[in-house]
Amino acid sequence: MQNYDCIIVGGGIAGLQAAIQLGRYSTHRVLVIDAGEGRSTLCRTYHNILGYPDGISGEELRAKGRMQAERTGVEFQKGRVIEAKRKGERIQLTGDNGMTFETSTVLLATGLSDRIPDIQGLNPTLGKTVYVCPDCDGYEIQDRKTVLLGSGEAGANMALVLIKRTNDLLYVNHEHKQISAELHRRMKEEGIRYLEATVQEVQQSEDGYITGILTDDGQMYESERGFIAFGGNRVHYELAEQLGAEIADNRHVKADPRTMIAAPNVWIAGDLGVHAEQATVAMGEGAIAAIWIHKELQRIAKESKVSQF
Questions:
Q1: Is this entry keyworded Flavoprotein (predicted)?
Q2: pLDDT (mean) for 247-252
Q3: pTM of this prediction?
């Protein structure tokens, strides 16, 4: 059993920002347990983060964040936490390798996983010229020939958002899922081209820029930029639920917006929460959660000192 003041589950953008903040207090033993997955591992270039006008990849941002946290004494361990339970006033976490950890506080930054079909050539373009978030990257398709790969109404609703950025938009319903007559009507009125076809390949240039898609009937459709919207993303809410947090209908976790506390001695940050799913939002929430975790750890330390007398 390894004991800590705070364990952060998830080493993405939210978890790393929290780790940096907590480490800089220089008074807490902090561990980050990270499976090495998540949205930030897929993004080739974040374009909307302060200080990186030419963009930065998720992998580089994570590497720099880990180095920055480690310099303050924060510990890191690769693994996946599969169970969380309360043990008196402490919290016990169990990893998939059988290791157990005990801590006074927990920050859950487990995020979500996008549902991305296995389409040849798609992954190398993600976060570089093919995007998932219109708030983050709608700017990148402004007035450009754009293809949206999606599924049914999830894709149709995304198309209605993206058409505000470009008047040259093709929505390809890759999974041939049904779309309501009302959504078809609205797409037609907005000038969105619609195609129901299976995408065989996302074609790209040598530097990872999308150039078009190839469908199963051999048709080629040129494109300068792309988006995906397949729906069915998986929110990793299970640990929060095990620790008594309230889960919303969409499986995101509810938390106090001022402190990011979701249950006693349990905080959340990042895409796990009920809010806009952006890296910059995740950073802010990670810092806020860390500040309040520090306050709680100070209270625990004070009470412990008093009880000794």
A1: yes
A2: 95
A3: 0.92
pLDDT in tens, 266-285: 999 999 998 778 999 999 99
pLDDT at 309: 56
Q: What is the DSSP string of the chain?
A: -EEEEEEEE--SHHHHHHHHHHHTTSS--EEEEE-S-SHHHH-S-B-SSTT-TT-B-HHHHHHHHHHHHHTTT-EEEE--EEEEEEETTEEEEEETTS-EEEEEEEEE---EE------BTSGGGBTTTEES-HHHHGGGGTTS-EEEEE-HHHHHHHHHHHTTT-S-EEEEETT-----HHHHHHHHHHT-EEE---EEEEEE-TTS-EEEEEETTS-EEE-SEEEEE---PEE--HHHHHTT--B-TTSPBP--TTT-EEETTEEE-GGGBSS---HHHHHHHHHHHHHHHHHHHHHHHHHHHHHT-
